[in-house]
Design goal:
By secondary structure, the chain is an all-alpha fold. The protein contains one helix and no strands.
């Protein structure tokens, strides 16, 4: 009986060792799968990042030329408007100075409209 008990215990120990090996292999397999999944995700992220960077550079190149064009147009309009203001200033400068001098030199003394006259 002790031989069969010993053999039964030995069989159980071997089965336990075999189960531990299977569990260890499953853990290693799972770990390897996680590493592979992370590596694949990193590759996909890099590819997507490169694609988005290329799209952004294309967008930026298309719109930066229009920005430059708009800037040039605005500069031209500003210069044109400043030239028009200078022209109007030169044309009306003498009239404005004369009107100001006339107002300063010709004084008409009058009572303020809110002042009530006191009758004597």
């Amino acid at each position: 009986m002790s031989g069969s008990n010993s053999r039964g215990i030995q069989t159980l120990l071997e089965a336990e060792k075999e189960a531990a090996k299977v569990v260890q292999q499953a853990r290693e397999y799972r770990t390897q799968k996680l590493k592979d999944a992370r590596a694949e995700a990193a590759k996909e992220i890099e590819a997507l990042k490169a694609q988005k960077e290329a799209e952004f550079k294309e967008f930026e190149s298309k719109h930066s030329t229009t920005t430059t064009t708009y800037t040039q147009q605005l500069d031209a309009q500003t210069a044109e408007q400043l030239a028009e203001l200078d022209k109007q200033f030169a044309a009306h400068k003498d009239d404005v100075v004369q009107k100001l001098l006339k107002r300063v030199v010709e004084v008409k003394p009058e009572l303020h409209r809110n002042l009530t006259k006191i009758e004597s």
